[in-house]
Design a protein that fits this description.
The chain is of the alpha/beta class. Helices cover 18% and strands 29% of the residues. The protein has 5 helices and 16 strands. Strands 1-12-11-8-9 form a 5-stranded mixed sheet, with no helix packed on it. The chain has a 5-stranded mixed sheet with strand order 2-4-3-5-6, covered by helices on one side. The two termini are 34 Å apart.
Length: 276
């Protein structure tokens, strides 16, 4: 029987909070639920809307909105509460409500990485109306380079199966999941030689001579990451901080020290590198 992994909650609750202080947060100051926040004075079509898998908050607290024209925002669980009014996931008066809900509230992406080296797993979508398995969505080969990305909506479930693995994952926030035991490439990789070290140094010296100095007007000035961008990065990291993948370097050179240090990464369409 498949083991069901319930991630970050699925229950939709309709609520009306008055102020920022009453927003549901966890001990780390992050949203504890997926939220749909709508201005109390917004047109009725906005206040009636109930996005999938989100708690609806109807409020007249102006501190929750970027400006006077904002009528609604959608936020993922894990979003830093101090950045709510900075979110880019905001709708303004006159915006297409269907497009906003589909793009900013209902759509999310799941990634799957397998470390079962000797087999190809299958990923199957479960019909939310019946709970029955449908046709296979995709196959999942081993390794981070073979990450399977699936576009879906909150509350949808996917069953990952292999000869010795069978688990159901529920979509609630944009997530990356790893299955199987992550290999230690420092023990599986090639042995670095003195010739490898010399080659790496010479290669770097050559790159210095050919690099093009092309700068923007900002150049190397240190500036703060925009608050809306930083909030999105923080949210993805927070929700996936226990879902790290193993960076793979076996087919590459020795210009990074993968052969002596295990490196994990948070996989998105790009990635964040995290040394162990």
């Amino acid at each position: 029987m498949a083991q069901v992994l319930l991630l970050l909650g699925l229950i939709l609750v309709l609520a009306a909070f008055g102020t920022l202080a009453e927003i549901p947060v966890d001990a780390n100051g992050r949203l504890s639920e997926n939220l749909y926040i709508v201005r109390k004075s917004a047109p009725a079509e906005w206040t009636r809307m109930n996005p999938i898998g989100r708690t609806k908050i109807i409020t007249d607290d102006v501190s929750l909105f970027k400006d006077d024209k904002a009528v609604a925002v959608c936020l993922w669980k894990g979003y830093p509460v101090d950045y709510i009014k900075d979110t880019v996931r905001v709708a303004r008066a006159g915006d297409d409500i269907v497009n906003f809900i589909q793009k900013e509230c209902d759509h999310l992406e799941l990634g799957f990485i397998s470390y079962f080296q000797d087999e190809v797993l299958t990923i199957t979508w479960l019909d939310p109306r019946t709970g029955e398995l449908t046709e296979s969505v995709t196959e999942l080969e081993a390794g981070e380079r073979n990450t399977a990305w699936i576009h879906t909506v909150p509350s949808h479930s996917f069953r990952v199966q292999g000869r010795n693995f069978d688990q159901v994952f529920v979509a609630t926030v944009p997530s990356i999941f790893t299955v199987g035991v992550k290999p230690d490439y420092t023990t599986l990789g090639r042995t670095i030689t003195e010739q490898n070290k010399i080659g790496r140094i010479m290669s770097e010296l050559g790159r210095v001579r050919i690099i093009k100095r092309v700068f923007t007007d900002v150049g190397f000035k240190k500036i703060q990451v925009p608050r809306d961008v930083w909030a999105e990065i923080q949210t993805y990291w927070y929700n996936n901080r226990n879902h790290r993948a193993r960076e793979e370097w076996l087919d590459s050179g020795f210009f990074v020290n993968w052969h002596v240090r295990v490196i994990d990464i948070y996989v998105h369409r790009g990635f964040f590198t995290v040394p162990n």
